[in-house]
Amino acid sequence: MSDLAIETHALTKHYGNLAALERVNLHIERGSVYGFLGRNGAGKTTAIRILAGLARPTAGSAHILGIEAGPDRIAILQRTGFVIDKMLLPYMTGRELLRFNRGFYPAWSDTQAKRYADALEIPMDRKFRKLSHGNKTKLCLLLALAQNPELLVLDEPTAGLDPVVTDQLLRILVEDFANDGRTILMSSHHLSEVEKIADWVGILDHGHLLLEARLDDIRDRYRRIRVAGEHAPANSPEILTTSASEGVTEYVLCAGEEKFVADLRNNGATVLEVLPMNLSEIFLELAGKENRNVPVETVA
Amino acid sequence: MYLLKQWRESRIISILAILGLALLLAMAVKGWFAIDTVNFDNRNYHGDFGPAFVPLFYVEAVLVAFWGWLAAGIGTGKNLGEGSGSFLLTRPRRRAWFLWNDWGYAMAQIAAIIVLANLMIGLLLAHILHLMRLPTAVPLTETGDPVSLAVILVVISIGVLLFAGLIYGLTYFSTIILQRTSGVMLGAGIIVAYLIFGGLIHHYYSTVHLPNLIVGLFQVESHHLTFASHLAAKMIVRAAVVMAFPIAAQLILDRSEI
After folding, report:
1. pLDDT tens column, B184-230
2. Which residue of A55, A108, A223, B68 shows the fewest CB atoms closer than 10 Å?
3. Chain B partners of A48 at a C-beta cutoff of 8 Å?
4. Residues of A in contact with B5 (CB under 8 A)
5. Is domain A4-214 classified as CATH 3.40.50.20?
6. Does A74 contact B93 at a Cβ distance shorter than 8 Å?
7. What phi, psi does A231 have (nearest 5°)?
8. Which of B79, B155, B157, B144 is nearest to B118 (CA)?
């Protein structure tokens, strides 16, 4: 059995001339919480729709729980909970939706459904279309959780939710699901939430995967270094970005901080600061710049 | 489980059908007792009542097909339009499973409507014939052999089912193409366009007839109404056409991006 819950190989999706995904290689370990980051239109939802079998790739392949997406879609859907559009059957109440959904899943748990409904305070007798945005999202998540999946794929689950509801959802995802050794893929552009629960992140921009790394490795290895003058060692693959203003050059490094600093000093540079970076800063460096020629970076 | 969804989505038009059948039942009961007070004298009855089945067939076919057209606005096409398609189609079933469930449920309802309506009509007609002391059989074959009322109503039922099934299938197919309920308007447009096109073709080339949307069950031979010739073969061909629409819808749905 593969150690990867999701693996894509050169996954590509074009809509006419628009490349929504371009040779994306995802590697999502079993038992991990994977934050799938990107700006609006980066291609996150397209990737998730391909994984769910709602869209077909132009090229490349995807394996979910060791099963190739596409040919054996049913086997994947039996073991995976997808929350994509947050739109259920609008005329049904929460209770009716539970009854509807139950029959599709052999591992369905009424006990869990009831527990989540109580914990999340969802009005189960109200029709879906009459629920607030937050309650709609909670109900979608409840249905996915109660089917007892091995893998949960969530497309921007916290978008438009207030902080209290967001906290409730994230708490359940981590405490009830991820701590049980199951895998979560969660797309978002709320970096602080991802940073709170994810152990892996992938950053997608304009259909390209710019970074896939363990969050701890990012914290340990990514550095912002400010130097007086321009003394960068030649051919440093660790440099993600470089910017200079008023005689101060700023480097963002993805690894090799000590050697890089030593090389700078050997070149006669004055190193002003070496700062650790958080996810938000790294995201802005990668996805917030107009320079797209950033290589795919995998920090193992 | 899926039956719950189907009932919840279609219950308004199901209630419409039930009301229609209830109205028909009320009329049949009223007619039943009203006819009891009429003093029939079958000595004055010279022809057969076969021609009465022609308007019955066409009126029934149009009414039931209209219901089929309404029913086609409900199902997977509607779900895709209202945004719940990604939820529905990520349940662990083939897309065809949803489509054929929709089709089966609607056709079962159409069949139930036809059977119940024709049962009431048949009982009323049998009662009238009994009061008139006439046999419950009509010479509708080319050889003039009598055909029982029950057989005639079964043939009419199949004819109505095929027409309503055609309208339902075509309209449902349109909702899948457009991925929204407004596909029913496309379906209606295709039907109207077909009728206009058929009329124009016939106007300019009087020998050319496009196939009728309704299978013609009857024909007039020497001023005598009979079942249409090769009726069974025509029905089999029409059944194949009726089945072509859900099959085409399945092919499109399987290839659609949601």
Report:
1. 999 999 999 999 999 999 899 988 888 999 998 888 877 778 888 89
2. A108
3. none
4. 89, 92, 100
5. no
6. yes
7. -130, 30
8. B157
